[in-house]
Specification:
Blueprint lengths: L1 E2 L7 H22 L5 H6 L6 H13 L2 H13 L4 H5 L1 H19 L4 H9 L1 H34 L3 H50 L15 H7 L10 H16 L2 H8 L4 H36 L2 E2 L7 H9 L2 H38 L5 H23 L2
Parallel strand pairs: 1-2
Length: 395
Amino acid sequence: MEQKWALENPTLGIIFVAVSFVFFYIIGWYSAKAAKSSTDYWTAGRSIGSLANGLGMASSYMSLATFMGVTALILKLKVPFVYMWIQFSLSIPLITLWYGTPLRRMGAFTPAQFVRERYGLNTSYVVAAFMIVIMLMYALGQMIGVAKVFEMLFGINYTVALICGGALIVGYVAIGGMYGTSYNAAFQMVLMGIAFIIPLGAIMKAMGGTGWYFPPLLYADMVPAMLAAVPDFFDMKFGFKWYFALIPAFTIGAMGLPHLGMRVYTAKSVKSARWAMVWFTFFCGIVFSATYTMGFSGVFFQATTGTVIAPSDYDKITLILNSVYNPAWVLAFVIAGAIAAGLSTISANLMAIGALIAQDIIATIKPDLSEKTMKTIGYCAIGGGGIIAILVALD
């Protein structure tokens, strides 16, 4: 019989999430003081160090898929996603080497500025329009994920959860600009990494795994029991071409996302941007590997305990495992980490949308606007992008 999952006592989760949002707003408000001009607002004064930038890139890249989407796919398809993870070490470094570094030297805000310089104003409008649509679609999935977590946490319907969560996100992003987004993303990466990996270690230990002290890689001792329960778990079910196709698809696809390339523009120097790639690869490698282990543990949980999870709850497997094996306060912390994962990506998407609208469209049509007006346009562009994403996510 399928079992539906919901939080019995959401109080702790509400407290953890509320406290995290207070921190996000404080960081955004404090960071906003450093922005002396509209250029600073979009590029963080080109002052972000390599460690903070690496954390921010990793945070924006992983998103709620780390906690919900990919773990649900592993639970449903039971396929080895190692091929999917190969691209994480390719996409962002290629963004830096192929177009991030030249654009950084050029002083650009977005890739559309390069198109404007090289191919003309009208072409840049087309590019900016396409990138805005891409960012809206990217933010859409995260908005839905955050709303589903809010729905589970607060016991409210999806629409209310979406509107409340979306409004909170748009608020702290608009206040902080790229300064706030960068430092918030770094903080969110630390939060989500701790909230994901350490509780996973406790889950593995409760399941009998001896490699619980390093969940990203040391689940091998659980493999014999997994194969006994699910003999085809590691089988290549879809053929080599299907798996291999994930590598160029995700690598080249990521290179078209302006919110990742914009991180290069915030760096103190080109050298700092390159070192940020090292930190990015390190943090993504650890958390992405742990994501696979979480999906593995979810399949192991169903197969060895006889528990059947409804397909509609597959994307809650991280929360389900924590609710079964860990204390309530740990689950509350994990929920806060999951929300942080969604927020980091949405905030980067909204900053990219704002920069594209304000700098690549409006500023080229009306180049003589005052700094105050440009900041106001930036706030409106970010808010407008958030509202559209919320409206589309209603269905």
